[in-house]
TrEMBL record:
Required cofactor names: Ca(2+)
Segments forming domain Glycosyl-hydrolase 97 C-terminal oligomerisation: 557-645
InterPro entries: Aldolase_TIM, GH, GH-type_carb-bd, GH97_C, GH97_catalytic, GH97_N, Glycosyl_hydrolase_97
Name of the featured protein: Glycoside hydrolase family 97 catalytic domain-containing protein
Domain Glycosyl-hydrolase 97 catalytic: 300-458
Domain Glycosyl-hydrolase 97 N-terminal: 25-286
Keywords: Calcium, Hydrolase, Signal
Organism name: Xylanibacter brevis
Gene Ontology molecular function: hydrolase activity
Subunit structure as annotated in this protein's UniProt entry: Monomer.
Length: 647
C-alpha cells in the first residue's frame, strides 16, 4: 500500500507540475537548474543539467508529531539568492584547499497560512545540497520527525549501482548493519529492489546523459543516519533506520529541538564521472563542531592482524611490527583486537615506550561495546560510557597513544550517532585520533570533527583474508570505491598487500589474484589520511624491492585529485597531487587487457616519468619513460593489473 501511495504521489507531482507555484535556482555557470514547486500542495523539486532531466519532480516534506508536512502546503516565500564564495583548507580529504562557488536560496512552505518549514538549497556547478529548517510551534520546543517524504525520481532508462543495506542483528556476532555488502551494478531502476533499502552513497547512470551520486552529510547526534528505499516506479525515498538495529532498542525516528534543521541531502551530477570522483560537497556545507586540541597529521603504518590474525596480537610480534614500520619509515602500528588479554595494559605501555624510540606511535583497537552486538573481542566496556571512556583516554594520552580504532557499532539510529559524536568529542580532549570500523558511513565528519581520521563502511581488506571469492573479485570491487564509497569520505580499507597469500607463511590462505603494481595503485586510489597497509615484515625480502620502496614513500595526504577515465566495476584511472608531485594510478578488472592513450597534462612534455606496469603474466616492473610533446602515454593494463605513473 505504501509503494502504491508513493507511486500515486509521484504521478500527481508530474501531472500537476504545470499548475504549481514554482521557482528556479541555477548554478553559477547556469548549466544546472533546480526547480522548486508546491505542486498543488505537495512540495517538490526537479533537477535539469544542460537542458536534460536528471531528476524528475521529486517529493519534499516531513511527517512529524507536531504536524504532517507532506501535503496541503503552499510555497509562500523564496528568499533572495545568495552567492557563496569561500575557501577552506582540510588536509584529510581528497583536496587540501577547496574553493566553494555556489548559489543558495531558502523556500518557505506554509500550511493553513502558517509557515511550517523552509527548504534551504545549495547549488554548485555540479552539486545540489538541501536540508529542512523547521520552525517553532508556539510553546512547542521539540519535535519528532517520523518520516521524510524526500524522494529522488529517476528518469526512465536510468540504471543503479547500489549496495543493499544489511538486515539488523545479522552477520558476525550480530554486528550488522555495517555497510559491508557487495554492490549490484547497472541494474535498471525499479527492479531487483532490496527490502532493506540501500546504503549511501548511491550511484545512478542517467542513460547516455550522465551520472548522479546521492548521499547525505552533516549527520551527528541530532539526527539519525538514513538510507534509500527503492520503489517500482524508479523513485527512491529517504528511509530511517530499521527497527531491529541496536538489538531493537532506540528510536527509528529523529528527534530535534525547534527551531531545528536536518542533515543535508546531497546530489552530485554531470555528463561524466569526473564531478563524482572530484566532489567535495560532503564537506562544503558543514562546519567544524569544535577546535582541534592539537595538530592532527596524516600517517602511514602497519598492522599484523590482516595477515597473521588474532594470535599475532602478542608482545613479541607487535614489537616486530614496530621495527617493521620503522624500517619502512612509517609512523604508526595498529595493535588490533585482544591486546588487553594477550598483551595487557602494562606491556602496552612498554610497547608505546619502545615505539617512541623508533619514531613509531600506536593505534589501539576497541570494541564499541554496549548492548548492540555479541562481538567477543576485547577490550570491552571502554567506549560506551563517558566516565569510563575518558579515564581510558587519559591513560592513552599519558603513554602517548596516537589513536584508536573503534569497531562493531550497532546501526544508524540517533542514539548510535550520538555515541560516534561522544567518542570523537572526548577523544579530541585527549588529542586522540579516531578510526571507526564495523560502522556507518562518515557524513562530512572530516570537517566536523578534526580528530576523525577515517571509517571502514565497505567490504574492506579483512574480507580478502576470509574469502577466496573476495580475492577473485578484488579488482572489480576496487574499481567501484573512487566512484562510490571513497567519493564521499575517507575510507579505511587496510589494503595494498604484497603477500601472495593471506597467511603468516605467505604459502597458505586465500590467494591474491591481483598484481603487485595493482597493490601500489590502490595505495594511491584509496584515499585516507591515515593508512595501515597490509604489508608484512617478510615483504622486506620476498616482495620486489621497487614495490617496497614505493610503499615507503607513497603519500597519504593529497592536495588535488583529477578523474581521467573509468567505469564502475570495469576500470579506473585517477591522478592525485601531493605538493607539486602528481601520481597517476590505474587498475583494470575487465577480462581483456585495457589499452589506453592517456592524456597526462599534469606532467611537463619531455619529463622523465617512472612507470610501474604489468606484463600479461602480471609480472610488474618499473621503467623510466620520456613523455612525448603531446603529453600522451600508450598503456596496456592486464586484468587484475595496475599502473602507476609519477615523476
Amino acid at each position: 500500500m505504501k509503494q502504491y501511495i508513493l507511486g500515486m504521489m509521484a504521478f500527481s507531482l508530474i501531472a500537476l507540475s504545470a499548475q504549481a507555484e514554482e521557482k528556479q535556482l541555477t548554478s553559477p555557470d547556469g548549466r544546472l537548474v533546480v526547480t522548486v514547486s508546491d505542486n498543488q500542495g505537495c512540495p517538490s523539486y526537479q533537477i535539469n543539467y544542460d537542458g536534460k532531466v536528471f531528476l524528475q519532480p521529486s517529493a519534499l516534506g516531513l511527517n512529524t508529531n507536531v504536524g504532517d508536512y507532506t501535503h496541503g502546503l503552499t510555497m509562500t516565500n523564496a528568499s533572495e539568492v545568495t552567492t557563496i564564495k569561500e575557501s577552506y583548507s582540510l588536509s584529510r580529504i581528497k583536496k587540501s584547499k577547496v574553493d566553494v562557488d555556489a548559489h543558495r536560496q531558502v523556500f518557505t512552505f506554509s500550511k493553513n497560512e502558517k509557515a511550517v518549514f523552509d527548504v534551504e538549497f545549495h547549488v554548485g556547478n555540479n552539486d545540489v545540497a538541501f536540508r529542512y529548517l523547521l520552525q517553532s510551534h508556539g510553546d512547542t520546543r521539540c519535535c519528532v520527525i517520523k518520516q521524510e517524504a524526500t524522494s529522488f525520481a529517476m528518469p526512465q532508462g536510468a540504471t543503479s549501482f547500489l549496495c543493499p543495506q544489511m538486515a539488523p542483528m545479522t552477520g558476525f556476532a550480530r554486528t550488522a548493519p555495517s555497510y559491508e555488502t557487495n554492490y549490484d551494478l547497472d541494474v535498471p531502476v525499479g527492479t531487483r529492489l532490496s527490502k532493506t533499502g540501500y546504503t549511501f552513497p548511491c550511484l545512478f547512470r542517467n542513460g547516455n546523459d550522465g551520472w548522479l551520486l546521492i548521499s547525505e552529510t552533516g549527520t551527528d547526534g541530532d539526527y539519525c543516519a538514513c538510507r534509500l528505499m527503492g520503489h517500482d516506479d524508479g523513485s527512491y525515498q529517504i528511509g530511517f533506520p530499521q527497527e531491529g538495529e541496536m538489538n531493537g532498542l532506540g528510536s527509528t525516528c529523529a528527534g530535534i529541538t525547534l527551531p531545528g534543521k536536518t542533515p543535508w541531502r546531497t546530489i552530485t551530477l554531470g555528463s561524466t564521472l569526473a564531478p563524482i570522483v572530484e566532489t567535495t560537497i560532503p564537506f562544503d556545507v558543514v562546519e567544524e563542531k569544535y577546535p582541534a586540541s592539537k595538530t592532527y597529521e596524516g600517517s602511514k603504518g602497519s598492522w599484523s592482524w590482516i595477515i597473521r590474525m588474532d594470535n599475532s596480537c602478542n608482545y613479541d610480534e607487535q614489537k616486530e611490527y614496530i621495527d617493521f614500520s620503522a624500517a619502512m619509515g612509517w609512523q604508526t602500528v595498529l595493535v588490533d583486537a585482544h591486546w588487553d588479554s594477550q598483551i595487557g595494559y602494562e606491556k602496552i605501555e612498554d610497547l608505546a615506550r619502545y615505539g617512541k624510540t623508533k619514531g613509531v606511535d600506536l593505534f589501539l583497537w576497541y570494541n564499541s561495546n554496549g548492548y548492540w552486538n555479541d562481538a567477543p573481542q576485547g577490550p570491552h566496556g571502554k567506549m560506551a560510557k563517558s566516565g569510563i571512556r575518558r579515564k581510558e583516554m587519559a591513560w592513552m594520552q599519558k603513554i602517548g597513544i596516537r589513536g584508536i580504532k573503534v569497531d562493531f557499532f550497532g546501526g544508524d539510529k540517533q542514539e548510535m550517532m550520538q555515541l560516534y559524536e561522544d567518542i570523537l568529542t572526548d577523544a579530541n580532549d585527549f588529542g586522540i585520533e579516531c578510526i571507526f570500523h564495523g560502522c556507518t558511513l562518515p557524513r562530512g565528519w572530516e570537517r566536523m570533527y578534526p580528530n576523525f581520521v577515517a571509517a571502514e563502511a565497505v567490504l574492506a581488506s579483512e574480507n580478502l583474508h576470509f574469502s577466496q571469492y573476495m580475492c577473485d573479485n578484488e579488482a572489480r570491487n576496487a574499481t567501484l570505491h573512487p566512484f562510490l564509497r571513497n567519493a564521499v569520505g575517507s575510507m579505511d580499507f587496510g589494503g595494498s598487500a604484497l603477500n601472495k597469500f593471506y597467511g603468516a607463511d605467505n604459502k597458505h590462505g586465500t590467494k591474491r589474484r591481483t598484481s603487485d603494481v595493482f597493490a601500489l595503485a590502490t595505495a594511491v586510489l584509496f584515499q585516507s589520511a591515515v593508512q595501515h597497509f597490509a604489508l608484512a615484515p617478510n615483504n622486506m625480502t620476498d616482495a620486489p624491492a621497487w614495490a617496497v620502496e614505493f610503499m615507503k614513500n607513497v603519500p597519504t595526504t593529497w592536495d588535488d585529485v583529477k578523474f581521467i577515465a573509468g567505469y564502475p566495476g570495469k576500470y579506473i584511472v585517477v591522478a592525485r597531487r601531493c605538493g607539486d608531485r602528481w601520481m597517476v594510478a590505474a587498475i583494470n578488472a575487465q577480462r581483456e587487457p585495457l589499452k589506453l592513450k592517456l592524456a597526462v597534462p599534469m606532467f611537463a612534455a619531455g619529463s622523465a616519468l617512472k612507470v610501474y606496469a604489468d606484463n600479461a603474466a602480471l609480472e610488474g616492473a618499473v621503467k623510466t619513460v620520456k613523455l612525448s610533446k603531446k603529453q600522451l602515454l600508450d598503456v596496456t593494463i592486464p586484468c587484475n593489473g595496475g599502473l602507476v605513473v609519477c615523476e
